[in-house]
Design brief:
Helices cover 72% and strands 0% of the residues. By secondary structure, the chain is mainly α. The longest helix is centred in the last third of the chain and has 46 residues. The chain is rod-shaped, with a radius of gyration of 21 Å.
C-alpha cells in the first residue's frame, strides 16, 4: 500500500553538480574593462557601472557557490538518513 519515498542520489548530485559548474562559469566570461585615459565623462561613468556590475556578479557567484555547497550537504544528509531508515 505504501511506497518508499527517498531522494534519488544520482539525479540529485548530477543536478547540483551541473549548477556548481554553471556557478563557477558565471563570471569567467566577463573581462576587465580596458584601462585607458579619457576625458569623456560618459566612458568614465560606463566604466564605474561596469566595475560595479562585475563586483555584484562576483558577490552573487560567491553566494551561489556557498548555497550550492550547503544544498549538496543537505542532500547527502538526506541520503544518509534514507539509508538508515531503510535498515
Amino acid at each position: 500500500m505504501f511506497g518508499t519515498i527517498q531522494i534519488d542520489e544520482v539525479m540529485f548530485l548530477a543536478a547540483v553538480s551541473g549548477m556548481q559548474t554553471s556557478a563557477s562559469e558565471l563570471v569567467s566570461g566577463i573581462e576587465t574593462f580596458p584601462d585607458y585615459q579619457s576625458d569623456s565623462q560618459t566612458i568614465t561613468q560606463y566604466k564605474e557601472q561596469y566595475d560595479t556590475l562585475k563586483k555584484a556578479l562576483t558577490n552573487y557567484q560567491n553566494l551561489l557557490v556557498r548555497d550550492l555547497a550547503m544544498i549538496r550537504q543537505a542532500g547527502e544528509a538526506l541520503v544518509e538518513t534514507d539509508n538508515q531508515l531503510l535498515k
